[in-house]
């Protein structure tokens, strides 16, 4: 019985720790998003990224990046490191790999 | 590794990379194809072609001592270096080097705001600090100070000022190099130099007084390859109480002449401390009327008299100017009233009062106000112009190549420039945006005719852009105009136009270069300045 309780406690602890870690990662990703992405991809007038995606998606998907629910982490990383159209890539001295993981987790937080 | 520095053996390069890693840490030397590709110029007009300027590797120090060590290693193995600050100089070369095979010294991680001095209205920063970073640091400190920023806020105050970049607020701050005070430079031999009062050990006035004692050499480190700037001081503006903008409308083609002269008088006499910008509702960008569109689409450019008739028939002005006043509200009102009197000397001129603001702006005002760089607030909205291309194309051009010629600040010169540049536009079948491109007024005593030429992943479009750029430089030279700034791929061309007395200016630079960088490791070719070993080659 004691062993069962200990195992259960340990398992729950792991789950809680993972959840906390995921929350912390998403929160960190939000900071990265606000610093690097929001100036072009936030809601508001004359945001280049939002404006371009409005024309591209024509209302089929949200034009504001962090309202999306279909951004796979690997896709986010690919775009950040390669750029797309008028958006240049971002170097590792700007967004390092850990920050990119966090950003990708943030943008995927509401994925279906 | 796709590219090696020319003349450097693979073994030496590998050893140098190892020594760079010892200096900055192994995580901050980038040599894989994937990592080095991040240093390509995303808006390169040579993208994917043999002439594209590409790096061999990148190294990213965080401290000045690490920069010194990188320079020492580069000297030992004769490896060309190319320092970048934030690396976002898109349209003027981005993060790519001026000489293919260079190792980019990426200073983005030197990102400390070292001092914000509200009393002296100054700051001291490192190269990796962006305008966003500096703005946030000032806000966090609660200092009532303004920065002056260029259109994209991700740029570096150091990088931008060294490239003679410009901003939008008050006279004395818009010319970013002019607004600097003191710099720290790692020389090609690895020594650290401080300019101005910074040369005085224990100096109390490094950001207070520019010149120190003896020759003032700061300018030698702008648009040059004589050192790596690791710190710079800047003067900042105390937050003004208020702002007002007014506009003046005039109705004849030649009215631009007294309009510009009056704006110049107001600026040069200190009555107007902001920019006077020029516009016209008759430009292509504003055209909604097919009849106007037809006039503007005339081969060779529009006929000024036909446009004048159109303006009269439709009761629209030919030219407009927007005036900007910063400071005490009462003083702004007095200055604007004086300006109204001065412009009334132009027959038919109409003076209209525009929006007014008091500072600080509310968060809502910051989000919605037009052109908030006028208030020293960094943002990225300038890219919305490129984004608008998606309205009519699924695959628009990727970016711009900027051509920026310095023209006299008077109406006659603008007429001539419009005529000359419109002819080039016709020759290369470029959109006649040249006519609608009115002079930019960052400088107090000259204007810039700034054109963005399309850059694409389509080689044919890029070839045409390059040919047009070369032609623009040529016709500018023929008319006594020169560029103030250019992408590295075109810097030889531009520097060669500055050819007075058998190119004595460039030859002087070469003499300096050979003396202080005998191995020619720093940014070979920057601004058309090549070290001896590559000149001879």
Lay out the secondary structure.
The complex is a heterodimer of chains A (112) and B (537).
Chain A: H1 2-41, H2 48-57, H3 73-82, H4 97-107
Chain B: H1 10-24, E1 29-30, H2 33-36, E2 57-59, H3 64-77, E3 81-84, E4 103-106, E5 113-117, E6 122-125, H4 131-141, E7 145-146, H5 157-162, E8 180-187, E9 192-194, E10 227-235, E11 237-238, E12 242-250, H6 256-268, E13 277-279, H7 290-296, H8 304-314, E14 319-327, H9 329-343, E15 350-358, H10 363-368, H11 384-387, E16 399-408, H12 411-427, H13 433-436, E17 446-455, H14 459-478, E18 482-483, H15 491-497, H16 500-516, H17 532-536
Parallel strand pairs in B: 2-4, 3-4
Antiparallel strand pairs in B: 1-2, 5-6, 6-10, 7-11, 8-9, 8-10, 12-14, 12-15, 13-14, 16-17, 16-18
Helix pairs in contact in B: 1-3, 12-14
In words, what does this structure look like?
The complex is a heterodimer of chains A (112) and B (537). Chain A is 63% helix and 0% strand. Chain A has 4 helices and no strands. Chain A has helices at residues 2-41, 48-57, 73-82, 97-107. Chain A is elongated, with a radius of gyration of 18 Å. Chain B has 537 residues and is α+β, with helices and mostly antiparallel strands. Among the domains of chain B are: 10-109, Uridine Diphospho-n-acetylenolpyruvylglucosamine Reductase, domain 2, CATH 3.30.43; 113-238, Uridine Diphospho-n-acetylenolpyruvylglucosamine Reductase, domain 3 (2-Layer Sandwich); 388-495, FAD-linked oxidases, C-terminal domain (Vanillyl-alcohol Oxidase, Chain A, domain 3); 498-536, Vanillyl-alcohol Oxidase, Chain A, domain 4, CATH 1.10.45. Chain B is 33% helix and 18% strand. In chain B, strands 5-6-10-8-9 form a 5-stranded antiparallel beta sheet. Chain B is globular, with a radius of gyration of 24 Å. The two termini of chain B are 24 Å apart. The model of chain B has no long low-confidence stretch (mean pLDDT 94). At the A-B interface, helix 1 and helix 2 of A face helix 11 of B.
């Amino acid at each position: 019985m004691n062993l069962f309780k200990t195992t259960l406690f340990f398992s729950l602890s792991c789950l809680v720790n993972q959840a906390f870690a995921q929350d912390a990662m998403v929160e960190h990703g939000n900071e990265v998003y606000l610093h690097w992405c929001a100036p072009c991809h936030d809601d508001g007038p004359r945001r280049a990224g939002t404006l371009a995606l409005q024309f591209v998606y024509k209302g089929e998907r949200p034009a504001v990046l962090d309202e999306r629910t279909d951004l796979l982490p690997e896709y986010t990383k690919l775009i950040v490191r390669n750029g797309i159209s008028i958006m240049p890539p971002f170097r590792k001295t700007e967004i390092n790999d850990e920050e990119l993981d966090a950003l990708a987790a943030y943008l995927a937080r509401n994925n279906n | 590794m796709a590219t090696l520095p020319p003349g450097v053996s693979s073994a030496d390069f590998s050893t140098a990379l190892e020594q760079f890693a010892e200096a900055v840490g192994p995580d901050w030397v980038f040599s894989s194809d994937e990592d080095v590709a991040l240093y390509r110029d995303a808006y390169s007009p040579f993208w994917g072609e043999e002439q594209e300027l590409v790096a061999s590797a990148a190294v990213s120090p965080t401290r000045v001592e690490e920069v010194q060590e990188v320079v020492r290693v580069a000297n030992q193995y004769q490896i060309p270096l190319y320092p970048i600050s934030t690396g976002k100089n898109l349209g003027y070369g981005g993060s790519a080097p001026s000489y293919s095979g260079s190792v980019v010294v990426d200073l983005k991680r030197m990102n400390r705001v070292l001092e914000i001095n509200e009393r002296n209205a100054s700051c001291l920063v490192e190269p990796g600090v962006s305008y966003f970073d500096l703005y946030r640091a000032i806000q966090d400190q609660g200092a009532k100070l303004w920065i002056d920023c260029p259109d994209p806020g991700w740029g570096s105050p150091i990088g931008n000022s060294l490239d003679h970049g410009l901003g939008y607020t008050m006279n004395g701050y818009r010319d970013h190099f002019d607004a600097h005070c003191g710099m720290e430079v790692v020389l090609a031999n690895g020594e650290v130099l401080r300019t101005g009062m910074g040369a005085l050990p224990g100096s109390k006035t490094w950001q207070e007084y520019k010149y120190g004692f003896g020759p003032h050499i700061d300018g030698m480190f702008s648009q040059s390859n004589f050192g790596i700037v690791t710190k710079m001081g800047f003067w900042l503006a105390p937050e003004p109480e208020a702002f007002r903008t007014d506009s003046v409308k005039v109705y004849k083609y030649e009215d631009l002449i007294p309009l510009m002269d009056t704006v110049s008088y107001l600026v040069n006499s200190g009555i107007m401390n902001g920019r006077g910008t020029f516009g016209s509702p008759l430009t292509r960008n504003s055209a909604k009327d097919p009849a106007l569109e037809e006039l503007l689409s005339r081969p060779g450019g529009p006929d000024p008299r036909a446009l004048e008739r159109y303006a009269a028939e439709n009761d629209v002005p030919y030219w407009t100017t927007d005036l900007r006043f910063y400071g005490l509200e009462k003083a702004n009102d007095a200055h604007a009233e004086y300006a109204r009197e001065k412009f009334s000397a132009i027959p038919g001129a109409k003076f209209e009062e525009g929006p007014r603001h008091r500072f600080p702006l509310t968060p809502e005002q910051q989000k919605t106000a037009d052109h908030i760089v006028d208030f020293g607030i960094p943002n990225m909205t300038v890219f919305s112009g490129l984004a608008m291309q998606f309205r009519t194309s699924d695959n628009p051009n990727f970016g711009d190549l900027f051509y920026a010629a310095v023209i006299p600040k008077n109406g006659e010169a603008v007429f001539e420039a419009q005529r000359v540049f419109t002819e080039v536009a016709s020759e290369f079948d470029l959109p006649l945006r040249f006519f609608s491109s009115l002079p930019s007024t960052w400088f107090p005593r000259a204007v810039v005719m700034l054109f963005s030429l399309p850059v694409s992943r389509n080689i044919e479009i890029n070839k045409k852009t390059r040919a047009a750029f070369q032609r623009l430089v040529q016709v500018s030279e023929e008319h006594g105009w020169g560029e103030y700034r250019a992408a590295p791929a075109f810097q030889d061309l531009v520097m060669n136009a500055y050819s007075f007395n058998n190119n004595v200016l460039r030859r002087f630079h070469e003499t300096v270069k050979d003396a202080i960088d005998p191995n020619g490791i720093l940014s070979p070719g920057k601004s058309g300045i090549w070290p001896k070993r590559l000149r001879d080659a």
